[in-house]
Amino acid sequence: MITENEWNTRFLAGELLAAPPLHVVAKAFGFITPPDAAPVRLLDLACGLGRHAALGVRLGWQVTAVDNSTVALEQLRQEHPQVTCVQADLEQSFVIEPEAWDVICCALYHQPSLWPAIRAGLKPGGIFVGVVKLQGRFAARPRELAHAFADWAILHDTEDVLAEVIARKPA
After folding, report:
1. Is residue 130 classed as helix, strand or coil in its secondary structure?
2. Considering only 1-5, 70-74, 159-163, 164-168, which range has the smallest mean pLDDT?
3. What is the spatial distance between Cα 122 and Cα 128, in angstroms, rounded to a whole number?
4. C-alpha distances in angstroms, 8 versus 41, 101, 138?
5. What's the pLDDT at 37?
6. Which of 60, 115, 128, 157 has a C-alpha 20 to 30 A away from that of 163?
7. Among candidates 109, 113, 77, 72, which has minimal Cα distance to 95?
8. For the residues 24-32, what does the mean pLDDT come to?
């Protein structure tokens, strides 16, 4: 586990710079059909500097971004004040509201204990996009991410250095 202090130090040192959204996340967002009456609700877990949250904002979505780093969230707040930023340790203190989200994104963060809450947190027909490393620190096992959502409609599933899954919750 990396502490809030360690993340803050890495962001302050410029070690973790803003980057464009991952291609698979942009692809997943393309599968979303906006609901008639309400904006699309996106939950971006372990958002870092918020590259995926920012994409959701550009699409006109209602975005909540969660991270343990106060430094990263402050930068996100300054650049995108419309994002609801939540500072929380995903391993301990954050609760995903059940059936509240149209899209949940969890990119480059591996915490299998979150998957049941992610599954419960999506509305029927909602989209999960997950990306995990398959090598190095905090790596997932091959096929681990795909197996966690295997009973859903899999819209994208690939593994190389990263495992990428886009899955739609049954309606």
Report:
1. strand
2. 1-5
3. 8
4. 27, 28, 19
5. 73
6. 60
7. 113
8. 95
CB atoms within 10 A of CB 159: 16
Per-residue pLDDT at 71: 85
Q: Which residues pair with 159 in a beta bridge?
A: 163
| pTM more than 0.85 | yes
At 71, the amino acid letter reads V
Domains in the chain: boundaries: 44-168
Higher pLDDT, 9 or 77: 77
Which two structure tokens, joined as six digits, stand for 151?
A: 């009973």
pLDDT higher than threshold 90 for residue 36: no
Tokens of 8: 């803050």
Which two tokens mark 59? Answer: 């699409």
Q: How far are the Cα atoms of 25, 50, 85, 117, 136 from residue 75, in angstroms, in the given order?
A: 21, 9, 10, 27, 28
